Amino acid sequence: MVEKWIKHLESSQLFSSSDTLLVGVSGGIDSVVLLDLLNTTGLAFAVAHCNFRLRGEESDLDEKFVKLLAERYEKPYFSQTFDTAEYASDHGISIEMAARDLRYEWFEEIRKNHHFDWIIVAHNSDDQIETFFLNLARGTGITGLTGMKAVNGKVVRPLLFASRKEIESYALIRKLQFREDSTNALTVYQRNRIRHMLLPLMEELNPAFRVSMQETMGHLRDASSIYSQAIERAWDVVVQANPGSDLALSLSELKLLSPLSTYLFEFLKPFHFNGDVVDEIVNALDGQSGKQFFSATHRAVLDREVLLIQKLAELSDARYYLEEDCEKLYNPIKLAISTQIRTASLKLNTAASTALIDKDKLQFPLILRHWQKGDSFQPLGMQGMKKLSDFFVDEKFSLTDKENCWLLTNGEEIIWIVAVRLDDRYKITPATTNVLVVKLF
Prior knowledge:
39% of the residues lie in helices and 21% in strands.
């Protein structure tokens, strides 16, 4: 198996011989064999062990075993204990999911802090097949049926070429000691049910089932590559620039895609929209502008000719105060502020990005805030007051336009709808002495 391992490393080029590796080691046969192979080929590595506190004394004995293993190989050792059950309960996820999340978050923390090049884990080809059926049972797209990637970000799985039988044979020949996880036999866990119940049945139907599955998953990876290329080509056509959102998709271009629900699902998958919500969006594309759809993290809004995707957040009620000596503001928007004496030579800048305000009518600090229900102002050039909500309708503001709109106020009175309209009460007149110039930059 050592020759097969070396050939695999040479052909796959997962990492170079000079890279430093952080190896996740449970103490089970897979990770013990992985350590021995890494050591046999002279690679630089450190050992990291997670104690998930799920098996009482057995978990503590695993930790001691892995520490001794690291000492035997004379390698740096890291360990961490987690309250996995509490984490799973707090986050509403399974124990398996909790352990995975905790493990990889901690591994990445160590990798960054100690400057390792890669995180190495010991998944084998049998794990690939189990993952296929796990994803199939949960419901997945084509990508979920291709198995785990050999390289995923900074995580590398160099043992995917080897079956569990090959690993067991290597451990026997090398007389390697390892820890048996008693929970591996418990069918309360989904992966174990697949391992101990489903896969043996599949082998009864086809003795070469495991080999056939590896070939099938290879074909699916090729199909997934073609599929991804089609999605990327469509993405380049459909996506539009829109500074006020995380993503803007052209409705007219979307409607030309077929099957539309599949394309849209892939576009929106990074924003956690599930298939049911995507179907609702598709059915509403010809409907009323302003309709909203939600995932756990984002909102999709039909906004005239585009579908806008934005992070979920409450409308900000934050207030930013501008003192009289403030010359520049960088957050939440960029404003340059200066004072000029009103003279006959003063040039009246009519650009929407600039407001010329009668400073003597102001009481500092000024306030920068979002609009609120009930706000009203006197639009420049008008005699009476107007509700801001009515003004937005007249100006054809979209929902996102309104939410991204900032107001400069004198107390609660609106001075300027930033970059949109000045309040007539604060305009400069022949009687004005001091002019406050506020410019968006």
